[in-house]
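Before going further, learn to read the protein records used in this course. The integers have meaning only within a learned vocabulary of local backbone shapes. The record below shows the convention in full.
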Amino acid sequence: MSWRDAPLYVEAFDLTRWVTERTTTWQHQHLAQLVTSSACELVTAVSLALTFPETRTAHLEQADAGIVRLRTLLRLAQGLGLVSKGGLRYTTGRLEAIGRMVGGWRKRIRKRQKGGA
């Protein structure tokens, strides 16, 4: 595990917990399940990237895809009145931060691969 990248896990975990706590009251249970599942997939991809260096690139790609999926589902939920505008601002802000961390990590990996170190 790279401790330098552990804040990424903390951010993803905290967002997953926040989302999970709120989706339990949604009327649209299928959408709630999709949002919760997507958040769990995101934090799992981050965990696997931290734990398994040999498959890190693939897990970071999964995390990137998970960010897009979760952002899309949360926008839909906000459009249906399930998430407040403030809640959407909070979650998209967290997803942007997570995306920057994932992107930075992927960039470091590419740089290291090009440099051979």
Observations:
- Residues 3-115 form a domain with the de novo design (two linked rop proteins) fold (CATH 1.20.1440.60).
- The chain has four helices and no strands.
- The first helix runs from residue 6 to 23.
